[in-house]
Amino acid sequence: MDGGQQAGGFDKAAHRVVAPRPFSDLHIGERFVLPSRTVTDANFAAFQVVSGDNHPIHYDVEYCRAQGHPGLLAHGLQVLCFTASGAGLFPHVLGEALLAFIEQSSQFHKPVYAGDTLYPALTITELQPQRTTGIVTVQSTVHNQRGELVLSGEQKYLVRMARL
Question: Which residues form the MaoC-like domain (predicted)?
Answer without folding.
Answer: 28-141
